[in-house]
Amino acid sequence: MKSTVNKRFNKTAFQAAVNKYLVTKLATLPEQADAHAWRLAMEYALAETTTMNLLATEQDPKIKNARSVNYLSLEFLIGRLTGNNLISMGLYEEVTVAMAEFGQNLTDLLEEERDPALGNGGLGRLAACFMDSLAAEEYPAVGYGLHYEYGLFKQSFNDGRQQEAPDVWRDETGYPWEVIRPELAQKVGFYGKVEEYTDNDGLNQRRWLPGLQVEGMAWDLPIVGYNNNSVYPLRLWECRALAPFSLERFDEGNYVAAQASHIQAGNLTKVLYPNDNHDKGKELRLMQQYFHCACSVADILRRHQAAGHSILDLAKLESIQLNDTHPTIAIPELLRILLDEHHLSWDDAWAISSKTFAYTNHTLLPEALETWGEQLMTTLLPRHMEIIFDINLRLMGEVAHKWPGDIEKLRKLSIIQEGDERRVRMANLCVASTYAVNGVAAMHTELVKRDLFPEFNELFPGRLHNVTNGVTPRRWLKFCNPKLSALISSKIGTGWIKDLGQLQKLEKFADDSQFQMDFMCVKKANKQRLTDWVAENMGLTINPDAIFDVQIKRLHEYKRQHLNLLHILSLYHRLINDADFKMQPRVFIFASKAAPGYELAKEIIFAINKVAEKINNDPRIGDTLKVVFIPDYRVSLAEIIIPAADVSEQISTAGKEASGTGNMKMALNGALTVGTMDGANVEIREEVGDDNIFIFGLNVDEVQALQAKGYNPYDYYNSDQLLRTSLDLLAGDEFTPGQPGLLNATRHSLLAGGDPYLVLADFADYVQAQGRIDKQYGDQKSWAKMAILNTARNGKFSSDRSIRDYANNIWQLNAVSR
Q1: Is residue 603 a contact partner of residue 741, using CB atoms and an 8 Å limit?
Q2: Catalytic status, residue 362
Q3: Does the annotation mark 553 as catalytic?
Q4: pLDDT tens digits, residue range 521-565?
Q5: Cβ-count burial 451-473 (b if 16+ within 10 Å, e if not)
Q6: How far does the chain reach from its first CA to its final CA, in angstroms?
Q7: Do residues 17 and 198 make contact, with C-beta atoms less than 8 angstroms apart?
Q8: Phi, psi at residue 538, to the nearest 5°?
Q9: Which of 96, 196, 419, 521 is deepest in the core (most CB within 10 A)?
């Protein structure tokens, strides 16, 4: 159904609302207002519409009685909402005119907005793309997350080292797009004990008596459907104290005790992923996960029953999607409520729960599969630990029946991992307790079946599915790259915004000289925009005619930013020492955060920054080679970087990256991928063709074979002079004058540290692939054709398609138009 929002837009009424909010909310007169105040007033005025549509969608009988999905994720990296919402509402041009009459430039106002600090990397951005597509496709949905006060952290660099500071993302007057929902608040318990009692029917029952209770306050952010009237909530829970403030203790001078419960409750939603390198951090992190799940499950049940539905019909009308293992504790929480509060039998409760939950796996790294100590779980959530043991007892019975006498199978599939400290395996709990498990790329799913969960795949045939990830074309092409969007629409119309597969129509223009020129002019303009940003914010001059080689993603060894660094070092060495060596000017662009407790990742950032400092100021190099590490990576920066990328670095060790979505975004915007046969790179290669991508390195089977026979990084170090020379540059004081060895942590990890992600094994092939890129870029006509084909052939990687796959193959949802 076409949206009527645009047709109803009344400029005079909108401008009156803006003036009203300037005065009543911001205590500012129009003639005194600055850009910050104008932006806030504009957002408050626009939010009137989205909030009304949110409530209208919520109360629509068609929605109440439809099957819906509840998307549970600890991260939703939603980015700035204003520009994206204006596009979805069809009001971008109208509001541009309306604000211009106030003397305000909409583009400048949009730059004032700070990204909500509600996520970190690909996991959270995927969740945000999925919510956008659920609303665009009109599948009834609620997203559930946490209302972080500071998010992960705001990143800066001090002498090249990462510095972490609180990310204060909300304005003093609040965040205009969110609305508090106190009527939806939930109570959540922790600690305490479990007691057995006899009910009125003489039956033995169990119940949990928490030792601490807090309140979960609901905040709704509107997820606005593109060109329709559906607005679904992203419901975020903020933790607040239930215990009243103690005036008596305060008057006695015991100020800490007076507000102890408030301090403890406030910590739960203070930051995303509290550092768990210590026991208190682990406890806080598990409390955070349970708080998220308890509030969300309670709200799902509230909605279900408020609509007049029986608890016995929960699985018929609700699906709960667990985005990774962080929300796993929702499974025993639902079972606890069904068993202890609704007094269902185990079989009846299990029949409901096991048909309600589905789980998305995001990692092939065994060490990244979440586990929790039994002692901590028992202390914090004693009833849930009992239920987990019950689930495991029944699971072990199924395993023993399938493989009689096979102790190894019991050990591997058990939810409880034996050892010095018994631990709860959250991924095993998910696979055993859900009706569907999915990987996020074709190769990833096959590896999940073959290597990660082969026994589960045999025990539960048909439970493991694939849903290849995607990105929303509204934000990652139409909004972030308006010049390219306009060029595309001038050739094929605007249908691609909702049906990205229509980009295939661009293929017929790939050899068109004029279209190639227009396409590359757009790329040049986007590169100039990034060049200007770098000059203004970092004081660094870069050449927009150079190859912009981009690696933007979470800093982790398996993503191999240090392989990229070694290549940069090899170029630097050759430029200085080989008079015959020539290369196209290139700017290497990094943006990434390292987890505060991940010391080696932080050392890699430090090494890249110190190498950049020397190279960027070496007069012998000039503009031929530059290295830029952009601090505080976030969605709004990605929206500037991605349209400017010529080369997309997707260089993870084969078999380690589940999917990736940055690879999709950059290819969609006309960047050429240099990558391993890993994650979604495999499918991108299938779509764009071998001639339009630069594949290098060991494949999954070769990686496993090399590791099986015993990988020795010194074999590569000793046999490759360029590699040895490049790596040794990190050992001295070339980049840290007077302080030799300051960068040795990165070098040590690749040699004495064993190089766990085979950086040295892939180095030579990577250098060759980069050489092919350099040569190809010299032929701009050929490069333009390849770039056009990357945009034209990436329509598969729309999150709209991903969501349709989920809806049809996992959730069994039908779209509901309003």
Answers
A1: no
A2: yes
A3: yes
A4: 999 999 999 999 999 999 999 999 999 999 999 999 999 999 999
A5: ebbebbbebbeebbbbbbbbbbb
A6: 7
A7: no
A8: -125, -5
A9: 96
**Residue type at 555 in one-letter notation:** L
Taking the whole predicted model, whether its pTM rises above 0.85 is answered as yes
Instruction: Write down the mean pLDDT value for the chain.
Output: 95
How far apart are the C-alpha atoms of 158 and 674, rounded to whole Å? 31
Q: Structure tokens of 212?
A: 């601490």
Catalytic one among 554, 567, 634, 747? 554
Residues 405 and 488 in one domain: no
Residue 43 lies in a domain: no
Domain membership of residue 50 (yes or no) is no
The CA distance from 191 to 802, in Å, is 40
- pLDDT tens-digit map of 354-399: 999 999 999 988 777 899 999 999 999 999 999 999 999 999 999 9
Contact assessment for residue 430 and residue 452, using Cβ atoms and an 8 Å cutoff: no
DSSP letter assigned to residue 115: P
The per-residue pLDDT for range 727-757, each reduced to its tens digit, is 999 999 999 999 999 999 999 999 999 999 9
- Nearest Cα neighbor of 659 from 147, 273, 130, 208 is 130
Q: Which of 661, 673, 676, 736 does the annotation list as catalytic?
A: 661
**Catalytic one of 125, 154, 326, 362:** 362
Dump pLDDT digits (tens) for 251-271: 666 645 545 565 677 789 999
336 is catalytic: no
User: Is residue 100 one of the residues assigned to a domain?
Assistant: no
Q: Is 673 annotated in the active site? A: no
Q: Which of 81, 750, 184 is nearest to 479 (CA)?
A: 81
267 assigned to some structural domain: yes
Q: Choose, from 80, 556, 559, 602, the residue flagged as catalytic.
A: 559
List 425, 474, 527, 553, catalytic entry: 553
Q: Is 401 a known active-site residue?
A: no
Rounded to whole angstroms, the Cα distance separating 548 from 585 reads 9
Average pLDDT over residues 63-72: 96
CA dihedral 70, 73, 78, 82 (to 10 degrees): 40
Q: CATH number for the domain including 205?
A: 3.40.50.2000
In eight-state DSSP terms, residue 648 is: E
Q: How far apart are CA 138 and CA 818, in angstroms?
A: 8
Distance CA 85, CA 234 (A): 14
User: What's the rounded Cα separation, in Å, for the pair 153 and 595?
Assistant: 9
Residue 643 has pLDDT above 80, yes or no: yes
- Helix or strand run (H / E) with residue 674: strand 672-675
The answer to whether residue 249 is catalytic is no
The domain of 694 spans 473-797
Which residues, other chains included, contact 466 with Cβ-Cβ below 8 Å and sequence gap of 6+?
438, 439, 440, 441, 442, 444, 445, 446
Residues 258, 373 share a domain:
yes
